Amino acid sequence: MSKSADAISRGIVVSVAGNIAPPLAAFASAPILAQALGVEGRGAAAAGAAPMLLAMCALTVGMPEAITYYVAKRGPDPAVLRRGLIYLAVAGVVGTVALVVLPMHLIPDQPVLITLMTISACALMPALLLSGLRGYAAGLGQWNVIALERLIGAGTRLVAVAGLAIANRLTVTSATVTIAATTFIGALAYLRLRHGRSVEWKASESARELRLMKFALGIWPGALVGTLLSRLDQTLLIGLSSVREIGLYVVAVSISEVTLVFNSAVRDVMFSNESEEQSSERLMKAARASTLMTVAASAVVAMGCIWGIPILFGPDFSDAVSVTMVLLVGVVLGTPGSVAGAGLSARGRPGLRSCSLGVALVINIGVLVALSPALGAFGAAIATVAGNAIAGYANVIWMKLLWDMPISGFMTIRKSDAVELCRSIKGVASRWKHTPA
User: Fold this and answer.
1) For residue 396, which of 356, 350, 436, 348 has the smallest C-alpha distance?
2) CA 165 to chain CA centroid, nearest Å
3) Residues in CB range of 430: below 8 A, 6 or more apart
4) Helix, strand, coil % over all residues of the chain, rounded to 5
5) Which range is most confident: 1-15, 53-67, 413-427?
6) What is the pLDDT of residues 278-313, one digit of tens each?
7) d(C-alpha 257, C-alpha 40), whole Å
8) Following DSSP, what letter does each residue of 167-190 receive, concatenated?
9) Domain map (residue ranges) of the chain
10) Would you tell me which of 29, 131, 266, 420 could form a disulfide with 290, CB atoms 3.0–4.6 Å apart?
């Protein structure tokens, strides 16, 4: 059944509320961790958790998106969820073993770091299983449950870090345990997940399993490359520039990523709705609305960071202002194509989105290697803009070639978009205001 525009708007607003919680909690807890652990301690805690956090993205094997796709298209199916969770559990076992064994051979002279990585590795499997539950809830359109999950995880992390600091018990080990545990504690939200009435598939369970894996493996390369596109530059910058430039870039990235919450919400909701029922006009309108919201958020962040960065992070980080400005341009340029990419995946062509991201990653690395030795963090930011723009525009071009959607339909914001966006926000706010407690 087709969902109304009001239902989609409500889903996006609720999703924004959930998506904004993790970056806000991370921003609030950052100074607490820095002051309690010091530079080296904070670095050790980050290094201990980094492999597990990267593995969380790399080892989903596209299964959460596949679960969303088939549940949105076919209706509730516990068998799809069960099979998806089995695959995620297997990936979790493989990943956990790798995270425990590899550091012993790669960094045998750093026992403390090995211990921290081992602690974090224990969270990998439950975190992957959580991603499967999130995918199922997305397929059912239960964005309130997903928002609650993210709020629980982010809120618990902030409260735990603050509580440990007040009790003078915030150490590298306790910080690592907190970071690891809060990656999956939000699963408690899915205790209230409503499955709905299961729909019988004409295909056999083995055929369903084959289709599920085929779609998952088609979308996985894009998810993996997307992770590399957003995180690999920070690793490569270590060998291309100075520690100071890395510090500037990390701060700029953390600030610019706050503006991604709107686009992430629109992308997730539209992937679910396009999987259920395709609508070219609705998809293009969502891309324009997402761009409009991202432009507004980026403008606010750009103005705030001019004085905010030197005050909050210190005068030594003043050069991060220009880097942040460039990254914000990249966020805006990539927004329409991100929604178009969700449309490609929802229409059964996830491989094309993966192709777009692959080309963007190659260009991103090339520009990074060419510019960063001389320009440092500023060069890395330019490389990110290039990668985001290429990935986004390539997705839009695919939509034009395959479904004859005009490029301007994704890119050109109209006055009516702003009017309709304001009307949708007011409508959702009004319904919440009059909802009985």
Assistant:
1) 356
2) 28
3) none
4) 85, 0, 15
5) 53-67
6) 899 999 999 999 999 999 999 999 999 998 888 877
7) 25
8) TT---HHHHHHHHHHTTTGGGGGG
9) 1-202, 219-437
10) 266
Name the least confident of 109-113, 181-185, 289-293.
109-113
Which tokens is 354 given?
Answer: 């993966």
Asked whether 327 and 252 are in contact (CB, 8 A), the reply is yes
Burial class (CB in 10 A: 0-12, 13-18, 19+), 348: middle
- Kindly report the CA angle at 134 between 131 and 138, in degrees rounded to 5? 140
Three-state DSSP state, 331: helix
Q: Which amino acid is at 304?
A: G
pLDDT, tens digit (0-9, with 9 covering 90-100), for 45-57: 777 887 888 788 8
Q: Which two tokens stand for residue 257?
A: 């990523």
Mean pLDDT of 393-410: 96
